Amino acid sequence: MSQFTARSVDRRLLMDRSVAGRRAMRLPQPDVPVAPLPGASMLRKELELPELSELELVRYFSLLSQLNFSIDTNFYPLGSCTMKYNPKLNDEMASLPGLSDIHPLQDGATVQGALRIMFELQEALGEITGLPGVCLSPLAGAQGEYAGLLVARAYHRSRNDLKRTVALIPDSAHGTNPASAAMAGLEVVTVPSDKNGNIDVQALRQHVDERTAVFMLTLPSTVGLFDPSILEITKTIHDAGGLVYADGANLNALLGLTRLGDLGFDIAHSNLHKTFSTPHGGGGPGAGPVLVSEALRRFLPTPVVQRADNQYRLAAPADSVGRLNGFHGSFGILVRAYTYIRTMGLEGMRQISENAIINANYIQVRLKSDYDLAFAGRYSMHEVVFSARKQKAKGASALDVAKRLIDYGVHPPTMYFPLIVPEALMVEPTETESKETLDQFIAIMQKIAREAEDTPEVLKSAPHDTPNSRLNEAAAARTPYLRWRRDGVAPAQSSAPAGVDAGDRR
Ligand SMILES: *Cc1c(COP(=O)(O)O)cnc(C)c1O
Fold first, then answer.
1. Hey, where are the domains in the chain?
2. Which residue has its alpha carbon closest to ligand 1 atom 12?
3. Poorest-confidence range of 191-200, 376-385, 435-444, 496-505?
4. For residue 288, which atom of ligand 1 is closest to its CA?
5. For atom 15 of ligand 1, which residue has the closest CA?
6. Could you tell me if the CB of 142 is within 6 A of ligand 1?
7. pLDDT at 41
8. Residue 232: C-alpha distances to residues 205, 228, 260 (Å)
9. What is the DSSP string of 27-47?
C-alpha cells in the first residue's frame, strides 16, 4: 500500500507555500547591457510567483513525483498500453551530450552519429516487422495511423483508383483507428467480430468491394487473441485490391515470433512508448513510427534517413505524403528505443514476447475461476481480458474492482475496453514483472473477488487511501481547473470545451 497517504502529506499548492522574500536562488549581476523592457501596455500589472527556499521547492516537487503512480514504484498492468519497465540505460544514452545538445537545423555533417542512430532504428524496426519502409517522425501511435492511412490513399490515387474511399475497421478496434481514418478523409465501415472474438470472415467478405481502400486490424486483437484466419483475411483484402493496415501500437506478442509483413500486412505503425520501453503517458513524449512494404516506401512522410557512401542524410521519399511535424520526431525517444533494441539484440526480442505471453497466460489460468474470461477456452497472447459480469451481478462493477486495486497499490487495468466485452478488465502484465509480483497481483484480485461477494460497498467507495477518491471524470476532462487562485475557489462549472481555461482569464 502506498506510504504517501492523504494523512501524511502536506497538500498545499506551490503558491500557498509562498513566503514573501524567500529565495531558492539569486541571479548574478548581468554582464551584458540590460535591454529596456517593452512598454507598460505590454506588461502584466500583477504577476504572482511563488517565493520558496530551495529545500521547500525540492520537497514540493518530490512530493508531486511520489503522488504520481508510476511503473518505477508499482505494478501497472494497463492492457493494450504495455507499461513495461523503462531501463535507466535508455535515459543515460539519450542524455549523452552528443545526442542531447544538438539542434535539428544543424548541418548534417556535424550530426552523423545521430542520423546513424535513426537509420539503424529504421532498419531494426523494418527487420522486426517485415515492413522495410520506415519513417520515424510520427509523434504518437495515432499520428502513425494517420500517416499510414495517408500512404494508403496516396497509393490508390497514384493508380488513379479514386473510388477507394472506405476504411473497414473491426468493432473491437482501438478508438484511434476510426478517428484517424475519418481525419484522413476515409469513410469508416465497421466489421463485426465473431463469438470467439475474431474477425467474422464471412461478414468481412460482404463488406469488401471496389471501394475498399484499407482494412485496419489489430493483431493480436484487442481481446488479446491471435486471429487464426489472418492469412485468409489479408488475402481477401488483397484480392479485392485493398491494402491491409496493422495497428501495431503494441507488438509485445509478436517480437521475434512472426512479422506483420510476412502475414500480408502492407502498412503498420508501432508505438515505441509501448513495445520498445520508452516512457509513456505523462512521462512522454511518444513516438509512433509508420512502417510500410517496399512497394509503398515512396509515399512515406518526410523526412526519412538514407545512407549513401557511408554518409547519412535526411531525404524526402519520391511521392511523399508530406511532413507531419516541425522536425524529425521525438529524437530523445528514438535514442531510447534504439538503446533498448541494441541491448536486447534480435534474439532478445523473441524472449521479450515469449515471457510477455507466458505472464499473461499465467494470470489467465490462475484467475479464470474468480473472473469470467471474455472469450473462454483459448490461450491469451500478451494480455488477457476478463469480464467482471459475475461481480457486477453482486453489485460491484469493473470500475469498482479497478478502484479497489488502487487501495492495494496496483494500477487499474484498462477498463471497459474493448467495447464488445461487458465489464471488461484488460490485464497486460508485460515481460518485465517477476513471478512474485504476478502472484501478489493474483492474490489481490482473488481477495477483491471475495470482497465483491461479501462486502461490495467496500469496492464501491474505493479508493480509500488517495488524496482524492472518485473524481467527476467528465468535469475533470471538460472543465479542468488548472490554475492557482488566491481565494482557492474553483471557477464555476461552465460549458467551455475541453482544454479551454474556463475560469481565470487575466
Ligand atoms: C495505444 C494504442 C493506440 C494509440 O497510440 P497513441 O500513442 O496513444 O496515440 C492505437 N491502437 C492501439 C491498439 C493502442 O494500444
1. 1-28+37-68, 89-344, 473-505
2. 249
3. 496-505
4. 7
5. 80
6. yes
7. 85
8. 11, 9, 14
9. PPPPSSPPPPPPPGGGS-S--
Q: How far is the CA of 390 from the centre of ligand 1 (A)?
A: 29
Q: What are 41-87's pLDDT values in tens digits?
A: 888 888 888 999 999 999 999 888 888 888 999 999 999 999 999 99
Instruction: Tell me the one-letter amino acid at 232.
Output: E
How many angstroms is it from 176 CA to the middle of ligand 1?
7
- pLDDT, tens digit, 9 for 90 and up, residues 133-157: 999 999 999 999 999 999 999 999 9
What distance in angstroms lies between residue 144's CA and the mean position of ligand 1's atoms? 9
Tell me the CA–centroid distance for residue 5 and ligand 1, in Å.
Answer: 32
Q: Residue 90: enclosing H or E segment and its boundaries?
A: helix 88-94
Q: Which of 247, 324, 427 to mutate to test the pocket of ligand 1 (most atoms within 8 A of CB)?
A: 247
Cα(141) to ligand 1 centroid in Å equals: 5
Q: Taking the mean position of all CA atoms in its chain, how far away is CA 498? A: 20
**Which is the closest atom of ligand 1 to the Cα of 143?**
9
Pairing between β-strand 133-135 and β-strand 290-292 as defined by DSSP bridges = antiparallel
* Sign, CA torsion 492/494/498/500: negative
Whether 391 and 370 have beta carbons less than 8 Å apart is answered as: no
Please tell me the distance between residue 247's alpha carbon and the centre of ligand 1 in angstroms.
8
Collapse the DSSP code of 472 into the 3-class scheme (helix H, G, I; strand E, B; otherwise coil) and give the result. Answer: coil
Which CA distances in Å does 167 have to 83, 131, 269, 415, 502?
A: 29, 21, 16, 26, 37
Give 127-182 as a DSSP string.
HHHT--EEE---SSHHHHHHHHHHHHHHHHHHTT-TT--EEEEETT--THHHHHHH
Least confident among 360-364, 441-445, 474-478, 501-505: 501-505
Which residue, by CA, sits nearest to atom 4 of ligand 1? Answer: 141
Whether 172 lines ligand 1, by a CB cut-off of 6 Å, is no
* DSSP 8-state class, residue 200: -
Model confidence pLDDT, tens digit, residues 156-204: 999 999 999 999 999 999 999 999 999 999 999 999 988 888 899 999 9
* Residue in 227, 271, 275 to alter for ligand 1 test, most ligand atoms within 8 A of Cβ: 271
Between CA 274 and CA 353 the distance in angstroms is 13
**Number of neighbours of residue 135 by Cβ within 10 angstroms:** 29
Residue type at 337?
A
Q: Are 191 and 199 in contact (CB under 8 A)?
A: yes
In the CATH hierarchy, which fold is given to the domain comprising 89-344? Answer: Aspartate Aminotransferase; domain 2 (3.40.640)
Distant-in-sequence, close-in-space partners of 302: CB < 8 Å, separation ≥ 6:
135, 137, 314, 315, 316, 317, 320, 322, 323
DSSP of 294-324? GGGGGG--B-EEEEETTEEEEE--TT---B-
Spatial distance between the Cα atoms of 412 and 401, rounded to a whole number of angstroms:
8
